[in-house]
Amino acid sequence: MTTESILIAFGFTLFAGLATGIGSALAFFTKRTNTVFLSVSLGFSAGVMIYVSMIEIFAKAKTTLIGEYGEVTGTWYTVAAFFGGILLIALIDRLIPEFENPHEIHKVEDISDIVQEAKTKKLLKMGLFSALAIAIHNLPEGLATFTAALLDPKLGLAIAVAIAIHNIPEGIAVSIPLYYATGSKRKAFILSFLSGLAEPLGALIGFLLLMPYLSDTLFGVLFAAVAGIMVFISLDELLPTAREYGKPHSAIYGLIAGMAVMAVSLLLFL
User: Fold this and answer.
1) Tens-digit pLDDT profile for residues 146-187
2) For the whole model, what pTM was predicted?
3) Which alpha helices (DSSP H) does 30-183 contain, by range?
4) What secondary structure letter does DSSP report for 160?
5) 254, 40 in Cβ contact below 8 A?
6) CA torsion through residues 35, 41, 42, 47, sign
7) Does the pLDDT at position 118 exceed 60?
8) 105 φ/ψ angles, rounded to the nearest 5 degrees
9) I need a labelling partner for 33 at 20 to 30 A (CA). Which of 103, 105, 128, 216 fits?
10) Are 229 and 89 in contact (CB under 8 A)?
11) Mutual orientation of helices 185-195 and 123-151 as an angle, nearest 10°?
């Protein structure tokens, strides 16, 4: 592992996190949400993440752990780490109340409804909880992007793009409460944009805590857990949100397109 590869991995993670700013901009500078585009895009992201998780990352984790512990034990460790990653992200998602959960669907045209809800709550508390919620959600996503980029830069780039698309609706959901907490679109945009920094922060925490103990076993377990995290994000967040934003078939078409593009890109590098 070189300094260059570490910096590239951090760069991908930073790019993915700051995409919340796109959603924030959409919330303030457009009148309606392009639901078909978002539906296809979110489905595309899910397709990329599911395919690369199950075909590439899980397989590499299994190969690594089998090489360390043998076929039976290595396979058991891989499966356990995969579901461990799912459990981690599921617990984080479960512990955040629905109101503050940035993965709950919002559209630009929902602003008036959120204003009414805001009148019954303390505005500053709304904004702070929303920012905290997205930060907590983005920590494991940042670790996943960073780890994948260390494994293979081309995989890292694909996942960073998928996570970036995934962060657009989060930017919409987070910036609106922040606007009504601060009374300033500019401040809300900046705070929402900066909340995406939790992605590289997650990567940094993972790097500082795990890299001193770097080994094939640790990498194998981490890769399998990352695969689990990304599959859960795809099935629990991306696909349901894609179906809510548009027609069900649009989300599925995007899903298949994402898988196909990821498959072709991997074939080109054989």
Assistant:
1) 887 887 787 788 888 888 887 777 777 667 666 766 667 777
2) 0.72
3) 35-51, 58-69, 71-95, 111-119, 123-151, 153-182
4) H
5) yes
6) positive
7) no
8) -70, 135
9) 128
10) yes
11) 40
Written as six digits, the tokens of 5 are 């590869």
Angle among Cα 174, 95, 141 to the nearest 5 degrees reads 60
Measured distance CA(248)–CA(241) in Å, rounded: 10
Euclidean distance between CA atoms 162 and 265, whole angstroms: 14
Reading the block at residue 56, the tokens are 């590439």
Residue count of the chain: 270
Measured CA angle at 246 (ends 243, 251), to 5 deg: 50
Transcribe 102-113 into DSSP letters: TTS---GGGHHH
- The Cα angle at residue 214 between residues 77 and 79, in degrees rounded to 5: 15
For residue 164, which phi and psi values (nearest 5 degrees)?
-60, -45
**CA–CA dist 196, 169 (Å, integer):** 12
Number of Cβ within 10 Å of residue 247's Cβ equals 14
59 vs 246: CA distance, rounded Å: 33
Alpha-carbon distance of 20 to 168, in angstroms, equals 5
